[in-house]
């Protein structure tokens, strides 16, 4: 067999499963990385509420509230992540693939060719160049998340990320301001004035 073929001869189903297993793993890794980026970006947006008045980001906006991101992240993060994931998926499909080699018998008296199914080779092929590029791209995506995780949050607001219990504990409007959630808000200590 060639240098870029795995030395195995299995059924077509087993070969398809082996060739596509990296795609399944890549899908799970994408969900995990997207979750990490979402937590990091959400934490940054939460910390900004201690420094600036901002409208709340909700699923169904009312008043001045903002809607959630369509891809769960701001476009400056989600578009590069989706493009990198698409490129990595394509590179992975080029890195591992199904190979079927049919052996032809040219010794027929009429000059025709006959496929010899008992000599056919069914295996997985690989491209080391595509695998290397996919690995480099994966390291760059992880490096981006690592760099983003070192961002400092210079605020006194309790870090919440996506914890609804912490967010709820930090969000209690004054009794005389029931519509505060519809307007730009800022985290801080509010006190009632006696009058």
Structural overview:
The chain is mainly alpha-helical. Helices cover 45% and strands 10% of the residues. The strands form 3 sheets. The protein has a two-stranded parallel sheet with strand order 1-2. The chain has a two-stranded antiparallel sheet with strand order 3-6. Helix 1 (12-48) runs parallel beside helix 3 and helix 2 (75-95) packs antiparallel against helix 3 (128-149). 8% of the residues are buried. The model has no long low-confidence stretch (mean pLDDT 82).
What's the gist of this structure?
This protein has 195 residues and is mainly alpha-helical. The protein has helices spanning 12-48, 75-95, 128-149, 164-170, and strands at 57-58, 66-67, 96-101, 104-105, 114-115, 121-126. The mean pLDDT is 82.
Short key terms for the protein model shown above:
two-stranded parallel ribbon, two-stranded antiparallel sheet, 4 helices, 195 residues
General shape: rod-shaped
Extract low-pLDDT stretches.
none
Side by side, the strands of the main sheet go 1-2
Helix/strand class:
mainly alpha
Strand content: 5-15%
| Major sheet | 2 strands, parallel
Question: Could you give the topology of this structure?
Answer:
Blueprint: H1 12-48, E1 57-58, E2 66-67, H2 75-95, E3 96-101, E4 104-105, E5 114-115, E6 121-126, H3 128-149, H4 164-170
Parallel strand pairs: 1-2
Antiparallel strand pairs: 3-6, 4-5
Helix pairs in contact: 1-2, 1-3, 2-3
